[in-house]
Amino acid sequence: MITLGIGATLGLLYGWVIDPIKYVDTTPDTLRIDYKSDYVLMVAEAYQTERDLPLAVERLTLLGAANPTEIVHRAILFAEEQSFADSDITLMRNLEESLQVWYPLAEDNAP
Fold first, then answer.
1. Do residues 88 and 37 make contact, with C-beta atoms less than 8 angstroms apart?
2. Under 8 Å between Cβ of 89 and 79
3. What pTM does this model have?
4. Is the backbone of residue 20 left (phi > 0), alpha (psi -120 to 50) or beta?
5. Angle 86-101/68-81 helices, nearest 10 degrees?
């Protein structure tokens, strides 16, 4: 029993302190919701300047397979909950409104 406890302690010490896992080159879809919301805000800021909706959609798809409008909506809900600046929430809402009327071209799927 004592040996088991010592082994578990040494294993945890090694795994957490001596040689912990280092995440390198992970994709944005693995981010926590607070970082995803910051990313969506950055996309909204870029969209405000560039006005390139297909590029904004491409950037948002890095956050997962969900519909880009849904990704932005979740980010807005989190931003409101966390009291982001009103100007930031407005930028995200503008992006969400643009996404709601945007439809990808059928040509993109042509052979």
1. no
2. yes
3. 0.72
4. beta
5. 160
User: What type of residue is 62?
Assistant: L
pLDDT tens digits for 77-111? 999 999 999 999 999 999 999 999 876 543 444 44
Please state the length of the chain. Answer: 111
The rounded distance, in Å, linking the Cα atoms of 84 and 79 is 5
What tokens were used for 43?
A: 């996309």
Distance CA 81, CA 100 (A): 22
Cα separation of 16 and 18, whole Å? 6
Counting Cα atoms < 13 Å in the Cβ hemisphere of 107 gives 1
Q: Phi and psi dihedrals of 105, rounded to 5?
A: -70, 140
